[in-house]
Amino acid sequence: MASLKQIIESNGLSFSEAARIIGCDKSQVVKVSNHTYPHWEEKEPEFIAKLNSAGCTAIAPQGFKIDPDVLVCTPSVSNFQLLADSLSDPEGRLSSSIGMVIGTAERGKSFTSRWYVQNNPLAAYVLYVDGSTKYQLLGDICEAVAHTRPHSFAACISVLEETCRYNRRLVIIDEADKIPVRQLEILRAVNERARLPFLLVGEEGLKVKTDRIPRLRSRIRNPLVVFEPAQAVDVLAYYQTAAQLQIDRRTAERLARHADGGFRTIVNDADALSKMSAASGIDMITDSMLDRLGA
């Protein structure tokens, strides 16, 4: 049989709300639920019966679940989509057909990039591996666009030219801030020769590099997209979208401060809180959960 405390917690009641339903003082409910009230064993079944009659049953929720694939449409995400859509549009202009998305690590740039590619057949995703040669970079692009990996640098260019004659694709290159300046110049030449649009995604140093290459800088499409730090309103939207969970503003602000603007931390925190809720059977975020999280 569920205890008084379990019924109060599983129904998301405060002690004050439980006392109002039962018709007694809050302090009495607290003491009975903690088994410190004189003859609490007589009072507890009486209080439970009154809560049950008010619809507060002993059936505990199973906690809230997080959908890890949800993308919250923040202003940064909306601007990303608009830029990517314009670059991938088969009827769009090919002048200034290199886009740029920058922002500090953990802002959600990579997640948004992969989500966009999964939902757009006209886009391909390449993760730049630090230290890649120019051939390895073009080979990765060919594999993403044409599903083949030619055996030479020149053959890669030929494949991209041939592929783009019939099927224009947008190539999103993640962690592009790690690409050496010389390879960025090669991407600019491939963009012009194969008429292949690129969306470069990386940290702020990416813009510093491209600004040093006038011929590349002139081909960057405006506006540049900057991923801003996540705010409390973004946390509210994330829990509503990913868990169908309404959280209060104070909880959202605590979680936003703990994440320090990082979207990845918000997702990781949500996963941790979801596991806490499943373990306790409470389909809400409590202060004790936030304390355990360190928020």
Question: How would you characterize the overall build of this protein?
Answer:
The mean pLDDT is 90. Strand 3 (170-174), helix 9 (181-194) and strand 4 form a beta-alpha-beta unit. The protein has helices spanning 4-10, 15-22, 26-33, 40-53, 75-88, 109-118, 134-146, 153-166, 181-194, 205-211, 214-217, 232-243, 249-259, 263-280, 287-293, and strands spanning 98-102, 123-127, 170-174, 198-202, 225-226. The longest helix has 18 residues, at 263-280. A five-stranded parallel beta sheet has the order 2-3-4-1-5, sandwiched between helices. It has 295 residues and is of the alpha/beta class. The chain is 55% helix and 7% strand.
What is the element string, with H for helices and E for strands?
Answer: HHHHHEHEHHEHEHHEHHHH
Spatial arrangement of strands, main beta sheet? 2-3-4-1-5
Main β sheet profile: 5 strands, parallel
Q: Could you give the distance between the termini?
A: 34 Å
**Mean pLDDT across every amino acid position:** 90
What is the 3D shape? elongated
How much strand content do the residues show? 5-15%
Uncertain stretches: none
Which structural class matches the secondary elements? alpha/beta
Strand runs, count: 5
Q: What share of the residues lie within helices?
A: 40-55%
- Rounded to the nearest angstrom, the radius of gyration is 27 Å
What's the total helix number? 15
